[in-house]
Each structure stands twice: as structure tokens, then as C-alpha cells.
């Protein structure tokens, strides 16, 4: 295993992800979906290629990829396996929280160096029985004594927690804190017990393996990410989650459109010199796909422009940014199923069948999770209240 990845650049990482997507993720994706099992082969290949440390800053041995670059990695993988890409996107969101908010502590700098060496996988636990999808409020609280902490959480949903090396858990700062006064705690897998409380037999994103869990954990206090979660949420977790999720939903939709395009070309070959009627529908979905890509790409570029520096971080706390990210999430989560639906109308019964090279069932089911993964209604309600006081144009 490499101990440093500074030799890597974005180009080599993207080439590696494209290769492993077609050689490893694609051949296993149907079985991962059917069995609702974790994509172990793809994660092993991602580790082997050093992709899990792409978001670690270069001075700590990682590739220091920007948001635009991480989005392209997630999009490339999603074209072969949506669940694998969702795991990668969630991992990068957690890694970014440590890299951007733990950067001042020797402990987290050391942890990131170790992550580069060992290619640790990070999971997230924000949901909780009682607060459900409201990431900005917690019932559970971290308790501190003698340099150690203990933390218990009853989470409704915890993707790939059983397979992760650490889980980043939101909780109240202490037992007297208000529900919104939260911190983020990095819990090592070996320092916690996870009791599965619900099943994960879902329509889509089945390979993310995301049942409910009761977590009981302990560790050193230095594992508590410095600062308030209010800051790391607005400056890092929300932008990384919403932009990278959008990029991977786009990747799933792009593969569906790719299958539809192959179908239309096959029809055209059967009647040389004519344009099949399905080609007009293909032109329509390709327009929607392009618009969706522009949406997440421009958000990623805008984030990269403000990502560093105190002024940029302050800007990310603004209502304008919150609205922009909410709109991105709602827009892309609604666009992806519409695009896959359009592709299905082109392909017809061969897309509806589960055993054809043009099958679109997995794509369709995977992107249906997008509007639920932080409910669009919940996000729209937050935007509605912000728009009451937001005066500038977004
Ligand atoms: C594939 C996938 C992976 C996930 N992975 C993780 C993970 O790793 N870690 C994690 O913590 N969570 C994870 N989640 C959970 C996710 O973050 C949300 O917590 C969860 O999807 C919300 O569940 P819910 O719909 O029951 O809850 P809620 O958000 O509480 O919504 C319940 C219902 O109430 C409605 N509603 C809620 N608020 C409002 C409002 N203000 N106005 C109008 N209607 C409203 C919603 O539309 C919905 O119908 C994952 C979810 C998915 C789909």
C-alpha cells in the first residue's frame, strides 16, 4: 500500500475511476442491487487506486482535489454503479469536514495522513429517531470526562456503517445544550458497537446498506471536530453533500441516456438513411442532461472560488449560499428521475426488462431516492422561510 499519494493528480485519479467503474463496478452492479449488498469489490478497487484520499490536502499526502474534480470522480463511478458512487460521495463529505474543520489539530492532521496510507472509509450519522431528517438538530449528547467522551445515538439511517472505518456522528455539545447546539464526533469503528434496528430492503440505492442503528461509542476528546457543527454544516457538509450527490445523480441519468442513445443508433442502423422517431426524444433528454450537468458544475465551480480563506467561509454561511444549495439539491433530485423516465420512453420494453442490455430499472429506482435523501419538502420549507428575509438577488 502506498504511504503517500502526492504523486497522484486529478487526471490519473479520473482515469483510474473510469477504468475500475467499467472493469469492477459495472460487472457487479446488478448483483449488488439484487442482493442489497455492499459493493466490496468496488471499494477494494477504489482503495487500491488511492481514490478514497482524493480530498485529503496535498500537504498531508492526498491529491487535494477540488469540488469540481471530486464531482467528476463521483459522476464517473455513478455511470456504472449508483450505490458505489453514493458511498464515495458521502465519504468525501465526511472527509472534507475533518480536513476543513480539524486542520488545525495535530490529531486530525495525523488522522488524515493515516487515511491516505490506509484508505479509511468514513460514514455519516446525522439522522436520529425523533429528529429524523433534520440534520441541524439532535437529541443525543456527547458526554466528556477525563479527556474521554462517550456517545450514544439511535439513528434512523446509517449508510455502510458496518463497513466503515469511522462514523462521523452529530450530537448536542453536552447534555444541557439546545437541540441545535451540535458538534460532530469522529467515532472509530473499533471503539463502538452498532446494533442494527431496522432493515434496508429498499427500492434503490440498495448497495449503500443503510438501515437504522443504535450506536454506543467512546474515545478520546480530540476526536470531537473543533468548532460548532452549525459552521461545519454550512461551510462544508451541506455544500459537499448536495454538490456531490447531484454529480452522481447526473452520472446515473447520463448512463440511462447513454443506453437510450445506443438503442436509437441501433434503430437507425436497421433503416439506413432515416432518422428514427425516438431520436427526437433523445434530443430532448440530452438537453435536460446538459442542463443538469451545468447546474452541479456551476455550483462546484462557485464553491471552489470561495472554498478557502476566512471571507469565503463567511460567505458560505450566507442565506444566498444556503438558497443556492437548496435549489441545486431540489432541482437535480427532480431532474434525474425525469431524465431516466425520458430514457425509458425511448427504449420502451427493453428498458423495462431487468435482463436486457438496455435495462433502466436500477437507474430509475436509484434516482428515486434523491428527493427523499433529506426530504425536498423539508428543504423547500427552509428556503421558504429564508426567502421571507432574503432581499438580494441570489
Ligand atoms: C440512500 C439513502 C442513504 C442515506 N444515508 C444516510 C446516512 O448515511 N446517514 C444518515 O444519517 N442518514 C442517511 N439517510 C437519511 C436521510 O439523510 C434522511 O434523514 C432521510 O431520508 C429522511 O427520512 P424521512 O423521510 O423519514 O424523514 P423526514 O425528513 O422527517 O420526512 C418525513 C416526511 O415529512 C415530510 N416533511 C418533513 N419536514 C417537512 C416540512 N418542513 N414541510 C413539509 N413536509 C415535511 C417529508 O416530505 C416526508 O414525507 C439516507 C437516506 C437515503 C435515501
Classified in CATH, the superfamily of the largest domain is: Butyryl-CoA Dehydrogenase, subunit A, domain 3
Distinct bound molecules = flavin-adenine dinucleotide
Instruction: State the domain count.
Output: 3
Coarse shape: globular
- CATH architecture descriptor of the largest domain: Up-down Bundle
Radius of gyration: 21 Å
CATH structural class of the largest domain: Mainly Alpha
Helix content percent band: 40-55%
* Backbone structural class: alpha+beta
Element-level helix/strand string: HHHHHEEEEEEEHHHHHHH
Head-to-tail CA distance between termini: 46 Å
Low-confidence parts? none
CATH fold assignment of the largest domain: Butyryl-CoA Dehydrogenase, subunit A, domain 3
For the biggest sheet, the summary is:
4 strands, antiparallel
Description:
By secondary structure, the protein is α+β, with helices and mostly antiparallel strands. It is globular, with a radius of gyration of 21 Å. Helix 1 (10-35) runs antiparallel to helix 2, helix 1 (10-35) runs parallel beside helix 3 and helix 6 (229-270) runs antiparallel to helix 7 (278-306). The protein is built from twelve helices and seven strands. The model has no long low-confidence stretch (mean pLDDT 96). The strands form two sheets. The chain has a four-stranded antiparallel beta sheet, with no helix packed on it. The chain binds flavin-adenine dinucleotide. The site of flavin-adenine dinucleotide has 23 residues, from strand 1 and helix 12.
Amino acid at each position: 500500500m502506498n504511504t503517500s499519494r502526492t504523486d497522484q493528480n486529478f487526471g490519473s485519479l479520473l482515469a483510474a475511476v473510469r477504468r475500475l467503474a467499467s472493469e469492477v463496478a459495472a460487472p457487479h452492479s446488478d448483483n449488488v442491487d439484487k442482493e442489497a449488498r455492499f459493493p466490496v469489490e468496488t471499494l477494494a478497487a477504489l482503495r487500491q487506486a488511492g481514490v478514497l484520499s482524493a480530498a485529503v490536502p496535498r500537504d498531508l499526502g492526498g491529491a487535494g482535489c477540488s469540488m469540481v474534480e471530486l464531482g467528476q470522480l463521483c459522476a464517473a463511478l455513478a455511470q456504472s454503479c449508483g450505490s458505489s458512487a453514493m458511498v464515495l460521495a458521502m465519504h468525501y463529505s465526511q472527509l472534507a469536514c475533518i480536513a476543513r474543520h480539524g486542520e488545525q489539530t495535530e490529531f486530525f492532521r495525523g488522522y488524515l495522513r493515516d487515511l491516505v496510507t490506509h484508505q479509511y472509509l468514513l460514514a455519516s450519522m446525522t439522522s436520529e429517531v425523533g429528529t429524523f431528517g433534520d440534520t441541524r438538530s439532535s437529541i443525543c449528547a456527547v458526554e466528556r470526562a477525563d479527556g474521554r467522551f462517550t456517545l450514544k445515538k439511535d439513528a434512523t439511517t446509517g449508510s455502510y456503517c458496518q463497513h466503515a472505518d469511522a462514523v462521523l456522528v452529530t450530537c448536542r455539545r453536552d447534555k444541557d445544550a439546545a437541540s441545535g447546539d451540535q458538534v460532530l464526533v469522529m467515532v472509530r469503528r473499533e471503539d463502538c458497537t452498532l446494533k442494527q434496528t431496522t432493515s434496508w430492503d429498499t427500492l434503490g440505492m440498495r448497495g449503500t446498506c443503510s438501515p437504522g442503528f443504535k450506536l454506543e461509542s467512546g474515545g478520546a476528546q480530540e476526536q470531537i471536530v473543533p468548532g460548532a457543527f452549525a459552521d461545519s454544516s454550512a461551510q462544508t457538509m451541506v455544500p459537499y453533500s448536495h454538490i456531490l450527490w447531484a454529480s452522481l445523480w447526473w452520472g446515473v441519468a447520463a448512463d440511462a441516456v447513454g443506453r437510450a442513445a445506443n438503442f436509437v443508433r441501433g434503430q437507425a442502423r436497421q433503416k439506413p438513411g432515416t432518422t428514427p422517431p425516438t431520436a427526437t426524444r433523445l434530443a430532448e433528454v440530452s438537453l435536460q442532461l446538459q442542463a443538469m450537468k451545468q447546474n452541479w458544475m456551476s455550483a462546484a465551480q462557485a464553491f471552489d472560488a470561495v472554498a478557502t480563506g476566512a471571507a469565503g467561509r463567511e460567505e458560505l454561511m450566507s442565506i444566498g449560499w444556503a438558497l443556492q444549495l437548496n435549489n441545486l439539491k431540489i432541482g437535480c433530485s427532480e431532474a434525474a428521475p425525469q431524465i431516466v423516465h425520458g430514457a425509458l420512453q425511448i427504449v420502451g420494453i427493453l428498458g423495462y426488462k431487468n435482463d436486457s442490455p438496455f435495462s433502466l430499472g436500477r437507474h430509475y429506482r436509484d434516482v428515486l431516492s434523491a428527493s427523499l435523501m433529506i426530504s425536498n419538502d423539508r428543504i423547500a420549507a427552509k428556503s421558504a422561510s429564508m426567502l421571507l428575509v432574503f432581499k438580494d438577488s441570489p
